[in-house]
Amino acid sequence: MLILKYLFYIFVFPGFLFCFFAGLILAGIDRKIVARMQKRIGPPILQPFYDFFKLMGKETIIPNSAAKRTFIAAPVAGLISLVTISLFIPIFKFSAFNAVADVIVIIYLLTIPAVSLIIGGSSSGSPYAGVGISREMVSIVSYELPLIIALLAVGKKAGMAVNDGMVTFSLSKIVEYQSLKGPMLFHWSMIPAFLAMLFVIPCEVGSLPFDIAEAEVEICEGPLVEYSGFPLGIYKLNYALKIFIFSSLFVTLFLSGNGTGIILFDAAIQYVLCIIVVILSVSLIRAVTARLRVEQMLKFYWTYPTALSILSLILVWLGL
């Protein structure tokens, strides 16, 4: 029975199937919101499902110069890492492995999809992929610094009450702190880190206008230029899963608590509403932000989001 329980966690909830449907729906909502903000009708919300299953039915063409096994395995490795992350992040205040939910482990796992994109692109043998790989590396260097500092601020704030004043990297303790003291967002010292994370999410996900690695118009989707069929479908699915995973992590870090207290399923309602708020915010950033060049990406993220994260960390360390 224990094995069946863990298989259910991995493949159904909060694992693959739950992430699959939630991620693709959020990707469709995101595209629809951005289209409306730009005064377009936009695709239907279910369009990501249509695109995914269409790619699953297409022929997979592997270049002669490609390292075939690596070319196929790279997107699958990214998918496995994202599903694994979902097992650690609380969903409706439940996580499959809550006792060992460590932020440091999640940070390591979050880098795997980006690394899989780099490895997959490098195995294709395309010059466009080479340009995209270098851009993806710049992107990683850009958003990792403000992300880590913001997580330090959250860990320090939670640790002051539930970890004897020491920084905590346990998601369960971060949720426990917010259950006692209210969501992090309601503490004014955490507002700068909250804003910094809002800018980190679209860059980490790789959505427009932060998609410098794929940049369809400039370098023909870079690392993905040689991909088709099943592997390309997995990469597109990884993009949708990242939207859901980062939104879930963001809600856990800043918007956890006791729920609305209005109806029986208040925890689930709160979670869904918070996810929608995050998607709206990220979509707004996408709609109003001009496309960043490679050199602008590093300068922007090491200036504004990093400064906001550091400000929160200083305020928390001073006990404010």
UniProtKB/TrEMBL annotation:
Pfam families: NADHdh
Keyword hit for Amino-acid biosynthesis: no
Subcellular location: Membrane
GO molecular function per UniProt: lyase activity
GO CC, any one term: plasma membrane
Transmembrane helix is among the record's keywords: yes
Transmembrane segments: 6-29, 71-91, 97-119, 140-162, 239-256, 268-288, 300-319
Keywords in alphabetical order: Lyase, Membrane, Transmembrane, Transmembrane helix
Membrane topology note: Multi-pass membrane protein
Record protein name field: Formate hydrogenlyase subunit 4
Species this chain originates from: Caloramator quimbayensis
